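Q: Give me a protein?
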Amino acid sequence: MRLRILEAAKEEFAAHGLAGARVDRIAAKAGANKRMLYYHVGKKDELYLTVLEGAYEKIRV
């Protein structure tokens, strides 16, 4: 579930940025509800940071 959320978040943040991204859309794309999203990854800001860290790790390898 966490991986699906992160992938959906990556797409949402890429398309809309931090300010334009919506947790509802991320949850829907991941097949989760908002409560599950918050359980797995925390607030939107924390999710954004996690997505950025994942992208940074990918380019560093």
About this structure: The domain at 2-60 is CATH 1.10.10.60 (Arc Repressor Mutant, subunit A). Residues 7 and 60 are 19 Å apart (CA to CA). The mean pLDDT is 95. The first helix runs from residue 2 to 20.
